[in-house]
Specification:
homodimer, alpha/beta, nicotinate phosphoribosyltransferase, TIM Barrel, 2 domains, seven-stranded antiparallel sheet, six-stranded parallel sheet, 15 helices, 18% strand, Nicotinate_pribotase-like_C (chains A, B), ligase (chains A, B), glycosyltransferase (chains A, B), nicotinate phosphoribosyltransferase activity (chains A, B), EC 6.3.4.21 (chains A, B)
Amino acid sequence: MTDEPSSALLTDRYELTMLQGALRSGAAHRRAVFEMFARRLPENRGYGVVAGTGRFLDALERFRFDTGALDYLADSGGLDDATLSWLADYRFTGDVWGYGEGEAYFPGSPILVVEGTFAESVLLETVALSIYNHDSAIASAASRMTLAAGGRPIIEMGSRRTHEMSAVAAARAAYITGFASTSNLEAGRRYGVPTAGTSAHAFVLVHDSERAAFEAQLAALGAGTTLLVDTYDVDEAVRTAVELAGPELGGVRIDSGDLGDIAARVRRQLDGLGASAARIVVTGDLDEHAIQALAIAPVDGYGVGTALVTGSGAPTASLVYKLVARSGEDAGGPLLPVAKRSVGKPSRGGRKWGFRQLDAAGTAVAELVLERGDDPAPGERVRPLLRHLVAGGEVVGREPLDEARERHARSVAELPETARRMTRGEPVIPTRFGQPVQV
Amino acid sequence: MTDEPSSALLTDRYELTMLQGALRSGAAHRRAVFEMFARRLPENRGYGVVAGTGRFLDALERFRFDTGALDYLADSGGLDDATLSWLADYRFTGDVWGYGEGEAYFPGSPILVVEGTFAESVLLETVALSIYNHDSAIASAASRMTLAAGGRPIIEMGSRRTHEMSAVAAARAAYITGFASTSNLEAGRRYGVPTAGTSAHAFVLVHDSERAAFEAQLAALGAGTTLLVDTYDVDEAVRTAVELAGPELGGVRIDSGDLGDIAARVRRQLDGLGASAARIVVTGDLDEHAIQALAIAPVDGYGVGTALVTGSGAPTASLVYKLVARSGEDAGGPLLPVAKRSVGKPSRGGRKWGFRQLDAAGTAVAELVLERGDDPAPGERVRPLLRHLVAGGEVVGREPLDEARERHARSVAELPETARRMTRGEPVIPTRFGQPVQV
């Protein structure tokens, strides 16, 4: 965080023009509740995964209009002195609740609830959505890959296929869902995600022969390294690898061709050469479907790039941030539910709480979205989903990344068996507004 | 740039382990040429647009391993003292050539050529690909939207649907292709992109009535502002808007429903109320196809969000960075072409130059990718595409963003008419390796 600049301009201009209008009318000081939710899941997805919580809390703490930001805003025109002066003093003083990071979510789940004055809360819309929409899209795709891999480790290696900072966040999101490691060094430094990687085809090509390249890599990284064996001829490369490294060879990587067939052939070859401990890692345009198809192949690990960082067909989670309740002129008065009536984009007014309802065996049966936060269904098994993240402007919900990783594992384990189907067409549990399911 | 940290860890671990191996074998010091290119364009695209050049040059200047980076690398294990010490002294001393930012590209176009030692050049792979893959994906989608809009202005407003820093880069890329403005304030501050935006549904909802909200907005922003008219009933909102603002009303925004039908109705209503100068802006899940379909509607401007920042179905440009030539042990000796033979991922060895061949009317007829940089076809009209970006480690190719914007306009104007088809299935000109087309 120390080397991060202010996050305040990672914001749409209309948040500030709305602020100016609301300062003029007085509505700026009304108490307001904003809710972040998804109207629907991406096609063919059974559940979504919340990610971005920790990054949002960091961004919230850095959401200050410093001199550079204020000078730009003053120069860019349209904002009056009252607005600029209000921005100069800005810090969020309200409360935020949210689903725990790594938690599964469903259509209508109130994954973030921001309560404060209208002015202080509306300003957070863009940066909150940017972070959650990106990170949740990645985590939602990554979670399916983890399931498809069935315990085999996956290396996240998509940095090169996405914006250089998205890459860091994508590595973090993938780790939450159970990926073993990432190629991205900044994700290692910033978030403690384990990093991995050994060599590319360029390393073989810059040497006079594949043998010379393997010798160099083994000398530099030891026999336990993973050698890339598909630059020229795979059979010959595997032979050379074992000849040079001996039975201690760590592993080989295959990046092209029919990965299942080649892995089977390479496994036989490695075993035949006495390198039965050598691991086979496959990479090359893998997604959750390709990973699942390789379940019967003798593969010890996967590397996933493009499909991970692009959300495997769903590059944004399509979360929205909507005003659902506000006070009247008396900011201490009751909160009134509000909702627009725009065609095709319905919103449900009123502040809400999320619970997961479980059956006696502990399997999720419904997402409850209720208008009260107290025990919603005496006698039923329900798990409250909102955590207090910010209290009176102070971040209280920060947690180590491993807690999100553990929460994700628990949350997905609790879902019905249909969550494991890669072709499932609809949410694996229904969202109920206002009442628990009869189990 | 001043508030940006080092870019050196926006890198895959394997670049550093390759460095360690190459320092061991001596190959680190061989002269090398890396080339960035796309094997193919995304489905249904007639051309791609290069973007990211300016950001890459910024990242190159910030590519230094500072103490924080070196400490992390030392702690994370696997790298020896020789490698860490080499990294501490790292700065790129080689040369870079690239297609001008905003230029159209085709399969095989050598859009970036990096020449230096193997070690100094291989390290740039990940960050170069991250920047170009993201920015070019956005620009390639944005360019089609600009064409579809046929001169009507487009506001980029997708920040909330992508990573918060991708949002800034996406606004920049969209501006290069002719977008009028962006909602993103940081893109305004950092790159001088004009910013736009007035209000959201929350602004209407926080007031006691739509009328009160409109009054507040007009008081704060003047009659020339754009009022959002679809929170409740569009007809009534338009009536209220003109009643309050008078014929000087700047415009109205419609964000839901059948945009073409509603725009036609609102246009008649505005004209009938005497507000014939009021502009109609439409937003809401627009992409290039929806924009084209609205060509006959009385629309004065578009706002595009999700489709822009997700590359409208192609969120990454799938550019690769490949070693294509290198010296032998004598770094001063000749450069030898190299290429892997992996199944399905062919590379073409050898250093290359890109030219656009034009016919007598100035229309592009072919992309020439040649092994020589001098005039490739005496008597034919050809335009060299590579600019010198970095000379001996010094950035020499930086340019104002408006130059890229102008280059894009010229480059697209030069393409065959088929480039304007939104459903075109293949590159609009062929790529020729080694010989010009006979015109």
